[in-house]
Specification:
Elements lengths: L2 H29 L13 H13 L4 H11 L6 H23 L3 H27 L5
Helix pairs in contact: 1-2, 1-4, 2-4, 3-5, 4-5
């Protein structure tokens, strides 16, 4: 079960890597001229901004996700931690789809709330373990 935390962190790394690939493709018309419209414009300009913003988001709140997971790793298997970690990952993927694909700020806020609560739950487990003397 403990490998679930490592796999969840690896899944987030894969998401960030995929966003870098998407950003590279979206910037190709502007940077390399590949896929430019006849008028020279970038057909992916709107997506480029949203992909870039989403990629930046992957290095904000997720930092606290990584810290909690790393602190929980030595404590042994924990189904609650695994469930919260994978809830966070599912939420991050959905957040990326909504932000990049739709730009729907209201829906993105709802999805972010799921991510936010999952990380708070992980930190609740970290604090509970620390108070029980099982961390540090």
């Amino acid at each position: 079960m403990q490998h679930a935390l490592v796999l969840a962190m690896a899944a987030h790394v894969a998401l960030a890597a995929m966003l870098y690939v998407l950003l590279t493709v979206a910037r190709a018309p502007a940077v390399w001229g590949i896929g430019r419209r006849a008028d020279g414009s970038n057909p992916f300009a709107a997506f480029e901004r949203r992909i870039s913003a989403n990629l930046s988001n992957q290095f904000e709140w997720p930092v606290l996700f990584y810290a909690a997971c790393i602190l929980l790793l030595p404590g042994g298997p924990d189904p609650a931690a695994a469930a919260l970690a994978w809830t966070f990952i599912a939420g991050r993927v959905l957040h990326s789809v909504v932000q990049v694909g739709t730009g729907n700020v209201r829906l993105r806020g709802i999805v972010f709330t799921v991510n936010f609560l999952a990380v708070l739950g992980l930190w609740g487990l970290v604090v509970a373990r620390a108070l029980a003397g099982r961390i540090g």
